[in-house]
Each structure stands twice: as C-alpha cells, then as structure tokens.
Amino acid sequence: MSKRINRNIYRSLLILSFLGINGLILFGLSTTLSYLNSGADRSSMLHLEANLDESYLPKMNWDRAKNLGRPIGDQTLMEIEKDYLSAWHVRNMAYKSNDPFGIHDYYTDSARVKLFDIINLNKANDIELNTTTLAHNPKIEFYSTDGTLVVISDNNVTSYEEIYKADKLLVKQRDTTNYQIMMLLEDGFWRIRHLEINSKELETVQLETQDSINRVEDINSIKGVNYYPKDSPWDMFGKKFNDSIIDADYKLIKSMGLNTIRIFIQYEDFGKANVLKEKLDKLKVALDLAQENNINVIVTLFDFYGNYDVSDWTITDRHAEQIVTIFKDHKAIIAWDIKNEPDLDFDSRGKEMILAWLENMILNIKNWDKNHPVTIGWSSPQAAINLSKEVDFVSFHYYQDLNAFEYAMDNLKLEIPNKPIVLQEYGISSYSGIWNLYKGSEKKQAAYYEQIQKVIKEKNIPYVFWTLFDFEEVPVDVAGRLPWRTKKQHYFGCIDKKGNKKAYFKHLK
C-alpha cells in the first residue's frame, strides 16, 4: 500500500515538474514575442548607466530656424535629440572600453564600420580614449517628407579627450568641432547614418587669463568662520534647517567682529544633476539672512563628491550650472569655492584626472558668473600650488605644526606673489580622553589660537577658522568610525555643547 502511495506521489511530482517547465518555456516565448513586437528598450539592453539624464547631459542649444523639407514638431525633435545623444554616449563608452557593445543600436551598418575600425585599432595598440562632449549647438537642416530622414548640422561641439596608452596618459585636449549628421528612422529609433567633420579648430587647454576681479579686493579683508548650525553639522540644508537658528548664529558671528562664513553644498544631497528646488530654497534663505546681517558667504560646491571621471563631467556641469546661474547675482556671495580638499583624492582617483576636472569647472563657473572670484580649498599649503594661475585667489587649510605656519605662509607667498591667499581652514581640538591620552584641553586650544592669530594679524592674512560650535554628532562619512579620529572632530568649536564660550573665543576678536 505504502509503495503504491509513493509511486503516485512520484508520478505527481513528475507531472507537476513537466507542467512547470513547459509553463516557464511558454512564458519565455511570450515575453520574447512581446518584446520583439513592441520594440526593445535599448537603454535596458545596453545597461546605459540607468537613465541618460543621470549619466550624460551635455549642454544642448538648438537652433530652431526653419528647416528644408517637412516641418518638424517638438515631440519628434525630442526623440531625435534623445537618440542623437544616446549615440554619442554609446560611442564614448565604446572608445573607453574598446568594446563595440551598443554601437549596433544607434548607428546604421555603414556608420558602424568606421567606429569598429577605430575600436579594433585602439585595442590592438593598447590605447584607450576617455572622451565626452560638453556642449552641442544642433540645427535641423532637412527633414524628409516621409519622416524617416533628418540632416543635422552641429556646430562648435565642445569636447574633451584624454588618450591613454597602457594606462599612461599621453594627451589631453579640448577641441571645438563642426559636424554634419544624417540620421535614419529605423524600427522606431533614430540611427546615425553619417557623422562627418565639417571643420575642426583645436583649442588648447587654457582658461581665461582675466580674473574675476569684482570682489577679489574684498578677499583680503576676510575674517570668517566655517559654519554649520550646532545641531546639524554637515547637514545644514537637511530636515533640521531652521531659519531662526541660522539668523541667531549669524548675529553671533557678526558680534564677534567676523564678516564672512563658509558654507558647504553637498553634491548628492542637493540632487546631483537635477538640483532639488527645496534645497535651492533653503540656500536662498541662508544667503538672504547673511545679506541682512551684512555677512559675506564663500559657497563651497561639490562636498562629498569624488568621481571626477570624464564620463561624469556633463552631470557635474549641470549641477554647478543650476546653482551658479541662480545665485550669481546674490549680493551675499563673495566667492565660489569649487571643492573642499580635492588633493586628498589624488592617490585614489589620480592627480591628473582631478586637476582636469577642476580646470573644466573653473572655466565653466567663470563663464556662468563673471562677477565672483573662484577658488579651491586645498588641504595644505603644499597642495595650494596646483592651479594657482587659474583661480582668482588661493585657499589652503593648515592643520600641521603650528611653529611651521609662518614659514609655510611666507613660502606660499613667494610661490604665488600676485594673488590673495586665504587661510581657509585651521584649528585644533580641545578633546581630552582615552583616545588621545588626555593630551587635549581648552587651555591648549586657547594657546594655539593666541599664537596663530598673532601671526595672522601681523601679516594681515585673510582667515576662516574651524569652527563655530562643538558638535554632539559627527557623521561617519566625515571621519569614519575609528574613535581616535572621530572624537576630536566634536571639539573644534569656540562655543561648547552647552552654549558657553570656550577659552579661545577671546582671541578671535
């Protein structure tokens, strides 16, 4: 009896397995047929780094002058633009990886041949092209009556290219090129049939030589503090944003005889390429309150950003463009600080990559805002030599031996004699505990400030000290989890956690 039951169970399992396998096969076939009939989503096929608007956003300036042939509607133009940019994006990725994956979907048969030849040649010679386009100026020249062919002229296409051989950088260059493009509508998508260069004018990687001088003179009179509210350090524009608290802090700062604050815009927190309106609104409130209190603001961009790769440039361009163009006329802003301590990423990301990204951003910000000076917040006087010719004034941080500060400052002035130099961060923690063998104290902190403020006053050095408050909490992203690193970050302020003035407060006036 039991054997018969077991046989029946076994047969049932076989039947269920057979039905299940066939069901999966039928489901797969139906999905495939549906996919083929409806047209493929090529962004998912190609794994195009999520959406295009998250990976590749060059500036597009369409010339909408009347074209030959059939008039073109807005929806059609949007579809052409999407596929046109996707074609550039796929091409850039293929050149970087020397893998033609995706070329088939955005270029016709004849157009692929040249691209495949370039990729194969580069692969054979161990050459890699890291390239992107930064700005396009397209115009529809002709649109066919049947709506399947379009001719585009794209003039003054700004691009940046790095050429590597065996992982060694050989050449980096910006250039401006004019293109003539023919695209065909196939399977519901626009593919490039021809992409030819009309004329090419190479542009050396030189930035504007003229500084943004409107407020450079104000730089020499900076007396300031790196500012976060007491209860929201490294998250000034987050959920705890409170205009009343910020206003009270500004009044305190002004009463200390200070005239400048430095604030930080976190790249991801503000929405990356699509900057969040709620963040912009909070930034405006902070700037408006600063103006009301007669306080100047150094706005530090790209906090906690660390990619720098050429493939990311158009995304960071759009992020900065939105912020800078919106606030370029705000009277509270004294300067744009592109990045906080980018040299700390030299080892992990590569010095040349980071400097190239910074050069591009300097050029962009000076183009968007011709009134405010631009700087970079280097982590040391030694690093501040980098790009000193490109910035309007030099900024550096000093957390080294206090007795060597005067020499470091004098040496930096010899290296960079013709530009203002700002001591943009400095300070010492009063933390005293097991993690520093009880060596810190408010008394030692006060002695530090007494000594350094004396040098600052004698040499008339613009300064921005770190920081206004001691903090209850410090995010892991700032100092990690190791207690001997994190504990000291809580105690740099001139006002303690209870709101009392610490011993060094008197030396700041």
Automatic annotation (TrEMBL):
<feature type="domain" description="Glycoside hydrolase family 2 catalytic">
    <location>
        <begin position="222"/>
        <end position="452"/>
    </location>
</feature>
<dbReference type="InterPro" id="IPR017853">
    <property type="entry name" value="GH"/>
</dbReference>
<dbReference type="InterPro" id="IPR045053">
    <property type="entry name" value="MAN-like"/>
</dbReference>
<keyword id="KW-1133">Transmembrane helix</keyword>
<feature type="transmembrane region" description="Helical">
    <location>
        <begin position="12"/>
        <end position="36"/>
    </location>
</feature>
<keyword id="KW-0378">Hydrolase</keyword>
<keyword id="KW-0812">Transmembrane</keyword>
<dbReference type="GO" id="GO:0004553">
    <property type="term" value="F:hydrolase activity, hydrolyzing O-glycosyl compounds"/>
</dbReference>
<dbReference type="InterPro" id="IPR018087">
    <property type="entry name" value="Glyco_hydro_5_CS"/>
</dbReference>
<keyword id="KW-0326">Glycosidase</keyword>
<dbReference type="Pfam" id="PF02836">
    <property type="entry name" value="Glyco_hydro_2_C"/>
</dbReference>
<protein>
    <recommendedName>
        <fullName>Glycoside hydrolase family 2 catalytic domain-containing protein</fullName>
    </recommendedName>
</protein>
<dbReference type="InterPro" id="IPR006103">
    <property type="entry name" value="Glyco_hydro_2_cat"/>
</dbReference>
<keyword id="KW-0472">Membrane</keyword>
<dbReference type="GO" id="GO:0005975">
    <property type="term" value="P:carbohydrate metabolic process"/>
</dbReference>
